Amino acid sequence: MSLLGITLLNEIVNTEGITRSDAIVTRLRERVMNSLQQSRKDIPTADGMDIALCVLDQHHKRFNIPER
Prior knowledge:
With 68 residues, the protein is mostly helical. It has one domain (2-64). The protein is 43% helix and 9% strand. It has helices spanning 2-15, 21-35, and strands at 55-57, 62-64. It has a two-stranded antiparallel sheet. Strand 1 (55-57) and strand 2 form a beta hairpin. Helix 1 (2-15) crosses helix 2. The model has no long low-confidence stretch (mean pLDDT 85).
């Protein structure tokens, strides 16, 4: 599960160019569910992932916090 998460995070940030933490986590959730086919009702699953994520603005040397 960790390798899947790392691979998907790299794709989301480096390939898709998503850099907002809320958008990254949302996209990661979508991609994990799709990869594990968790949207199907006929396949029970207990797989999951816990994540803590922050985005650092290296230019301003601060954390990027999405505005609500």
